[in-house]
Amino acid sequence: MGSGEKIMNLRKQLNLTQRQVAQAIGVTDQTVSNWEQGIYKPRLTPAQTLALCQILNCSLEELVAVTSDLDSTATS
Question: Cβ neighbours of residue 10 under 8 Å, at least 6 residues apart?
Fold first, then answer.
């Protein structure tokens, strides 16, 4: 399971929309959709990372574990 899928699972467990997550971290809902589809990987500022942790109700360690999966599967 890639990081986008994990982010999507965390989001859905909390019954959040892509728009709600996007607004909380200052990106578009299309950006969140692209992450979840594996089109792009999240590139967040520290403040956005903290906001994502808060809205997904997860620790930084959990989020790093979620997003590091995609780093190991870099695209050409």
Answer: 56, 57, 58, 66
